[in-house]
Amino acid sequence: MDSNGTRNGPPRTSLADYVLEVLRERLATGVLQPGDHLAEPELAEDLQVSRGPVREALLTLQAEGQIEIRRHRGAFVSVLTSDDVEEVHTLREAIEVLAAERAATRLTAEHIARFDDILEAMKVTSGSVQPQEAVRLDLSFHDVIYEAADHLRLARVWQSIRSQVSFFLYTRNVNFPDFPTVGFPEHKELRDALCSGDPLRARQATADHLSGAYTRLSQLDLPPRT
Amino acid sequence: MDSNGTRNGPPRTSLADYVLEVLRERLATGVLQPGDHLAEPELAEDLQVSRGPVREALLTLQAEGQIEIRRHRGAFVSVLTSDDVEEVHTLREAIEVLAAERAATRLTAEHIARFDDILEAMKVTSGSVQPQEAVRLDLSFHDVIYEAADHLRLARVWQSIRSQVSFFLYTRNVNFPDFPTVGFPEHKELRDALCSGDPLRARQATADHLSGAYTRLSQLDLPPRT
DNA sequence: CATCTGCAAACTGTCAACAGTCTGAAGTCA
DNA sequence: TGACTTCAGACTGTTGACAGTTTGCAGATG
Lengths: 226, 226
Prior knowledge:
The structure is a homodimer of 226-residue chains.
Chain A: H1 15-29, E1 37-38, H2 40-47, H3 51-63, E2 67-70, E3 74-77, H4 82-104, H5 109-124, H6 131-149, H7 152-175, H8 179-195, H9 199-219
Antiparallel strand pairs in A: 1-3, 2-3
Helix pairs in contact in A: 1-3, 2-3, 4-6, 4-7, 4-9, 5-6, 5-8, 6-7, 6-8, 8-9
Chain A binds a DNA duplex (30 and 30 nucleotides) through residues 10, 14-16, 39-41, 49-53, 55, 71-74.
């Protein structure tokens, strides 16, 4: 929650990073909803910093596409339409297939151990797990793939759509109560493909995994359009 | 060159956007070299604005990975290693193949006309063209693909690596004097594949086009490593 | 001559204040 | 009653100033 200590004395990290961290947390947990208005003075007062660092954090989030800044109107949490669902999915498939291909030949024992830890947690919690926790495990699994891919720019793109993917996964879990049972086997198969060391198999498995998730999600017309 | 007029009176675009535009131009044309230090007061004096907008522009460039900001040390133009060449290429292939696939079924007559205008310019200037102008035409061609793809997030990723691609293209052109002759036929074929309306053919043509450019570039060990 | 210490200049991180712009509501008129 | 105008409030874009940190050089010391 507080990576810097208690915010006394000289901060080890810049205040802008602190604000950014708080806002990322609020976006991922749903405290901030799409369409919400982010007023600089309000945030500054809330976090006990001046408007400068707040502006910097907002700029970074805009570059990632998580918020939109309109001139003289302020920052708004991006509203996700059905077109956005498609954009995020297609972009994710494009980059994650590449990440998997690279990870297949770069996996270390430590990465595999992390896979297995997450899979174990998925297996154990099957049947009785909250949607939010399932999302956390799911994303953690894919984080490991990007880490193993050892590709800075790829990781940056993933970071920029990660919280939006989180939002979609959460929506899916809430609407498809079978989520605790499908998570484990799907990721287990993905793990095996990655560990096989065969880049093409890893690509294919990732494509299958993601298209499955997308078809489930696109069935419900919950996300508003344009 | 100056999208706002002459910078008098109220700017139609924000000053931060103006600074960003100037810096992008300087990065793409090589006025700013990798490793160069960007001092805020100096830039502010140079562009006749205060440090605020300069900081905002630097923040955006950092989010795109074009510069690195080190605490209390300032901003430095990213140094591109051979690993970076590979990263940029693999990421570009991943997203541009998707862009081409989408563009194939979304091309309008206006897009095709733009393709043909650029191709005409490539053909006419064959034999006597400066490396810099060849790069400009090349990038313009691919800009149209991303525009036709109608995918905001894809366009954003492209924007984030565009000036780095520009740098690589320029390096290639300087070292391979045959660049005026290969540009036209390669892009002509790409145009035909896109206009065929066949997504798979567009994908394949794009992959071929990019891998050709990469193999040429990776032959020279000019970019420093680590 | 080499190494260490101390200082000064420059720069970054942060803050408070000013001016211009947009929004929404109160007030006016047909 | 309904639509248009006006105005006050709030917020953003921008600026200039202050404090802390880093760097590089000059001088002292072995």
